[in-house]
Amino acid sequence: MSPRVSEEYREARRTEILDAARARFARDGFHQTSMDDVIREAGLSAGAVYGYFPSKTALVHAVVDDALARVLRAFDAASAEITQTAGDPGAEPLDGAEVAGAVVDRVMQLLSGAGIDTSRIALFAWAETMSDEELRVQVAARLVELRGRLRGLVTAAPWNPSAPVPDDAADDAALALLAAPIGTIVQRHVVGDADGAALARGLAALARSWAPRP
Amino acid sequence: MSPRVSEEYREARRTEILDAARARFARDGFHQTSMDDVIREAGLSAGAVYGYFPSKTALVHAVVDDALARVLRAFDAASAEITQTAGDPGAEPLDGAEVAGAVVDRVMQLLSGAGIDTSRIALFAWAETMSDEELRVQVAARLVELRGRLRGLVTAAPWNPSAPVPDDAADDAALALLAAPIGTIVQRHVVGDADGAALARGLAALARSWAPRP
User: Fold this and answer.
1) What pLDDT band is residue A94 in, cutting at 50, 70 and 90?
2) Whether residue B191 is found in the same domain as residue B119
3) pLDDT (tens digit, 9 = 90+) per residue, A135-148?
4) Residues of chain A found within 8 Å of residue B207, distances taken between Cβ atoms
5) Which of residues 80-99 of A touch B (CB under 8 A)?
6) Domain match, B48 and B63 both
7) ipTM, two decimals
8) CB–CB contact B182 A183 (8 Å)
9) What is the DSSP code (8-state) at residue B161?
10) Quick check: keyword Hydrolase in the entry (chains A, B) (predicted)?
C-alpha cells in the first residue's frame, strides 16, 4: 500500500470504530459499555480496535470530541447559510430570536440523525467531566469555541444590522444563547418532548414579550 | 417518646442522612459514592442509615427529589416577592428578561449555598435518568412542574401586564426559559465561569437585540 492509501484506510477504520462506539455510548452510557461491546459492534478484532484506541477512556474522549466537532461544523454551515440569505439585496430583515432558534434547531436535527439520538452522549459526557479533568478541559474548550461563534453571530447580527448586541454584553449573551440548546437537550432526554423547533418558537415568543414597550 | 417527638426525631435523622449523601454525591457523583461513604459522612450506624434508605438507589432518588423540591420552593419564593413588588402602586414596569434572569439567579444562588455547589448533582442526575427509568419519571415530573410555574409567570407577566406571552406560545416559552438555567448549570460546572447573574445579563442583552424594530 502507498502511504496515502494506508492513511485513508486507517482513517476509515478509525471512523468505523468511532461510529460503533458512538452508537453504544449513546444507548448505554460510558460506564455500561465495555471495550468488548464496542469491538463486537464494530465487527473488528480486538487487536484492531486497541490499535487505534488503547483504552476505553481514549475512546470516550475521541467520541466526545468528534461529536463536539460535528456540532461546530453544523453551526458554521447553518450560520453561513443564514448570513448569506440575509445579505441578499432586498432581503427582509430577519427576527434575531427566530434566527438563533433556527440555527439551534438545525444543529439539533443533525445530532439526532438516523437511529439513536447521539445528543444523549452529551448527558453522559457532562457527568463524566466531573471526575475526568482531561475530558472536562477538552469539552470546556469546545464550549468556549461555540460561545465565540455565538458571540460573533449576535454582535454582527447579520440578519438585522441595526440591532447588534453591544461588545460589553456579548460574552453574557453568548453564554445565555449556548444555555438554550444545552437545556433543551436535557429536557429532550429527561422529559422526552423538547426539540429545536419548540425552542425556536419559545425564544421568539419570549423576545416578543420582552421587547421594550414603545 | 410520644409519637410526635418520635416523628420529629425520625425527620431530623432523615434530613441528616440526606445532607450527608448530598455532600458526597455532589463531590463524587453517585457511582463513586458507596453507602459506607454516606454512613461515615453522616456519623451514624449502618443500621440507622439502612433503616431510612434501604439501598443507594433509594438514597439517590431521595436526594434528587429533595434537591428539585428545593428548587421549586426557591422559585416560588423568588417569584412571589417579585410579583408583589411589581404590584405596588406606582411601581415601575419591570423588564421581563431581567425578571426572568433575577429569578433564575436567586434559585442558582440558593443551590450553590455554602461549601460544595449542590447543582453538580444535576449533572449526575441527568446522566443517571438515562439508565434509571424510575428516576427519569421522577425528575421529568419535577421539570414539568417547573415549566408550569414558568408558564404561569410569562402568561401573567405581573411585571408588565401589557406583554404577556400568548397562551398558544406559552408551553414553548416555558421550555425555552427552563433551558436557560439548565444550560447555565452545565456551563458553570464544565467551563467553570457561568452563573445566574451572567445569564440574567445575557438574557436582557438578547431581549434588547431581538426587540422588533419600531
Assistant:
1) low
2) yes
3) 999 999 999 999 99
4) 206-207, 210-211
5) 93, 95-97
6) no
7) 0.91
8) yes
9) T
10) no
What CATH number does residue B140 fall under?
Answer: 1.10.357
- A105 touches A197 (CB < 8 A): yes
Range of the domain at A8: 1-54
> What is the model's pLDDT at position B210?
78
For chain B, the average pLDDT equals 87
Reported as type and span, the H/E element at residue B87 is helix B56-87
CA nearest to A136 within chain B: B190
The answer to which of A15-24, A130-139, A195-204, B51-60 has the lowest mean pLDDT is A195-204
Mark whether B34 and B129 lie in a shared domain. Answer: no
A29 in reach of chain B (CB within 8 A): yes
The answer on B24 and B66 residing in a single domain is no
Distance from CA of A210 to the nearest CA of B (A): 5
Q: How many CB atoms lie within 10 A of CB A117?
A: 17
Query: Could you tell me the three cell numbers for A176?
Result: 445565555
Q: What are the residue ranges of helices labelled H in chain A?
A: 3-28, 35-42, 46-52, 56-87, 96-112, 120-129, 133-156, 167-190, 196-210
**What tens digit of pLDDT does each residue of B75-108 get?**
888 888 777 776 666 666 667 777 777 787 887 7
Note whether B202 contacts A120, CB cutoff 8 Å: no
Selecting from A157, A172, A191 the residue whose C-beta is nearest the C-beta of B143 gives A191
Let me know whether A197 and A164 are in one domain.
yes
C-alpha distance from A181 to closest chain B C-alpha (Å): 7
For chain A, how many structural domains are there in total?
2
